[in-house]
UniProtKB/TrEMBL annotation:
<keyword id="KW-0732">Signal</keyword>
<feature type="signal peptide">
    <location>
        <begin position="1"/>
        <end position="21"/>
    </location>
</feature>
<protein>
    <recommendedName>
        <fullName>SRPBCC domain-containing protein</fullName>
    </recommendedName>
</protein>
<dbReference type="InterPro" id="IPR023393">
    <property type="entry name" value="START-like_dom_sf"/>
</dbReference>
Length: 183
């Protein structure tokens, strides 16, 4: 019985400790004021400084977020992506997010600008849709990433937009964790 308990604890710790990225977990919730928070979390087997490079360096971003990407890391800067490697960052299919603020190695806040893939109604109503990305050190070689999207509108079109980002954010962050699976 004691051996079984010890084995279960060891297996649980192995899932989040050295050598493996943790699976992306959807921890979304509704705030005390009734606002939706689309939240996903995971742990990477990297220091906080190393993890930050995957959010602030074009070459590292290309490994997981999109094949065409550029970040102008500064308050008032942008993160621009295009999922079609045959298109440019200036093509109308590109997605541009304004950088509201950042703290090196700790925080990145993006204003999500909805493109023509979303209804005109949602684009016109969007004022506050943001993604807040936080990096928390677990230890010297592991970092927890928490991505929270806030500022959702109300109605059927917004529900579809929310569901799009649930699928998209989980998929995108899973692409990042795949870089470290089994390493």
């Amino acid at each position: 019985m004691i051996k079984t308990a010890i084995l279960l604890i060891a297996l649980s710790l192995a899932a989040i400790m050295p050598g493996n990225a943790q699976d992306v977990t959807n921890t979304s919730y509704v705030s005390a004021t009734g606002e939706k928070v689309l939240r996903v979390e995971f742990i990477l087997p990297l220091s906080q400084t190393e993890t930050w490079q995957y959010f602030s360096n074009d070459d590292k971003l290309k490994l997981w977020i999109a094949p065409v990407v550029h970040v102008d890391l500064r308050a008032g800067g942008t993160l621009v992506t295009n999922y079609d490697k045959g298109k440019s960052l200036t093509d109308k299919s590109a997605i541009s997010s304004d950088i509201i603020n950042y703290i090196d190695n700790e925080l990145l806040t993006l204003k999500v600008n909805l493109n023509d893939n979303f209804t005109k109604k949602v684009q016109d109503e969007d004022q506050n849709l943001q993604e807040v990305i936080q990096l928390f050190p677990v230890d010297k070689t592991h970092t927890k990433i928490v991505s929270s999207m806030i500022g959702w509108g109300k109605g059927a079109d917004w529900e579809k937009t929310y569901e799009f980002f649930v699928r998209g954010n989980i998929y995108t962050y899973e692409e990042l964790t795949k870089l470290f699976k089994g390493k």
